[in-house]
């Protein structure tokens, strides 16, 4: 494998560049999955974060985990609530920061979007490459968790 002009930089910088490029490609490839949903990027991000969270998150927690401004997440959460896709419930740990929880319509929409995305994924990537994707996912999750722990410690 030949070396490029930027191979001497810190590996994390290279990962950032590749992640940006991959994100752009994936967003384009999977745009059709949510074409009919009327969700914008921020709303999709928040719905995913709420549905996939181990426990009901707050707006601030989603913002921190996604590297997004709390205000952006709040606007998306308000829109999702107005659409009946999530609800805000009392947070026993914080009076002014409600927990976000998906409603049945929100869960149904997420399942529908995932099914559409699954069909696109099946078409894009042959089954032989699935283990490579799983390994990459595990590696990225590990890196993300380490970065989040470092940022929390600061």
From TrEMBL:
InterPro entries: HTH_MarR-typ (IPR000835), WH-like_DNA-bd_sf (IPR036388), WH_DNA-bd_sf (IPR036390). Residues 32-133 form the HTH marR-type domain. It comes from the Bacteria. It holds the Pfam family MarR_2. This is MarR family transcriptional regulator. The lineage of its organism: Bacteria, Pseudomonadati, Pseudomonadota, Alphaproteobacteria, Sphingomonadales.
